[in-house]
Specification:
Helix content: 25-40%
Number of helices: 8
Structural class: alpha+beta
Distance between the termini: 9 Å
Low-confidence stretches: none
Mean pLDDT: 94
Bound molecules: zinc ion
Strand content: 25-35%
Number of strands: 15
Shape: globular
Largest sheet: 6 strands, mixed
Oligomer: single chain
């Protein structure tokens, strides 16, 4: 199977992250003051948008003013040589943040994913994930002292002189799996607790400490649907900073078609033929447009009998 880098929403490597610049405080200060630099304002996991529902991008004096008003800022990288920063206005009331940047409202980037350019969606998700992490890492986990941001907003440092521990942004990997029947003629979808009637998706779960991705696939499938799987095949990965995920997608083959749901996370799991899945696709029910789940289902559907 061909895998295109960056086909999934929120990734794609559109920005040059220019990680080597982050620790250069003089360069960071110069870029923050550079009138060409761009600032993406955020407010509590949400973008600030214009009347056209487009995320606000500031430059010039407005950008400098908003960087100064922000609780945290982060250097996201370079876009064609122009620095891109994000500014977290979560310390302000929502109406004040909106007014400060000339927006009309705030919105979750996932609500915009269908009509944003891929590079814009990726930058907004990147900023959101970083600021979420900053807000969760305000104190040192070792000694309890306050931490402060450094490294262009990509590290937090414990302020206690005798500690000084460094903290880096956390990613929480999860596996997402399309399980096919032994004959590869059907795939297994499940309905999660709380999901509406008829709402099915692929299986997923977090990777635990001390597990490989493959270990996590085998354990999750055994726990959630009582299925032993073999022939794991990597299908791609997706940045999912909502708040801190990385989705790693696999296809796997079940040893048998007997299914037993756990009754906790899942209410129901059942096998779908390609015809049944095709009918769901035709009805626009093949998962979120921005999710790797949809890719897993779509590629299985169009692949026919996989080789
Ligand atoms: Zn400490």
């Amino acid at each position: 199977m061909r895998i295109d880098d960056g086909v999934f929403a929120y990734g794609g490597g559109w920005l040059d992250r220019a990680g080597a610049l982050r620790a250069d405080e003089d360069r960071m200060a110069a870029l923050r003051a550079d009138e060409r630099s761009v600032v993406l304002p955020h407010w509590r996991d949400r973008c600030l948008v214009t009347a056209e529902n487009v995320p606000v991008r500031l430059s010039g004096v407005d950008a400098v003013r908003v960087l100064e008003a922000a609780a945290e800022t982060a250097f996201l990288g370079l876009d064609g040589g122009v620095a891109v920063f994000a500014a977290d206005l979560s310390g302000h009331a929502e109406a004040d943040a909106v007014a400060l940047v000339g927006a009309v409202s705030t919105v979750d980037v996932r609500k915009l994913a269908g009509h944003l350019a891929p590079a814009e969606a990726a930058a907004q998700a990147y900023a959101r994930g970083l600021f979420y992490w900053h807000r969760q890492q305000r104190w040192c986990g070792s000694c309890g002292a306050v931490t402060t941001a450094g490294g262009g907003g990509h590290v937090r440092v414990c302020s206690a002189a005798e500690c000084g521990r460094l903290f880096f942004p956390r990613i929480e990997p999860a596996v997402i799996v399309l399980v096919q029947a032994p004959e590869a003629d059907r795939c297994l979808l499940a309905r999660h607790t709380g999901a509406p009637e008829g709402s099915y998706s692929t299986l997923a779960g977090f990777v635990e400490v001390g597990e490989s991705l493959e270990d996590a696939v085998r354990r999750e499938m055994a726990e959630e649907v009582g299925v032993e799987v073999t022939d794991l095949a990597y299908q791609g990965s997706q940045a999912w900073p909502f708040p801190a995920g990385l989705m790693v997608a696999f296809r796997a083959t079940a040893a048998s078609v007997e299914v037993k749901v756990d009754g906790v996370e899942l209410i129901e799991a059942r096998w779908f033929t390609r015809d049944e899945l095709g009918a769901r696709a035709a009805a626009g029910r093949l998962g979120r447009v921005d999710s790797i789940d949809r890719h897993l289902l779509g590629s299985w559907l169009t692949a026919g009998q996989p080789g």
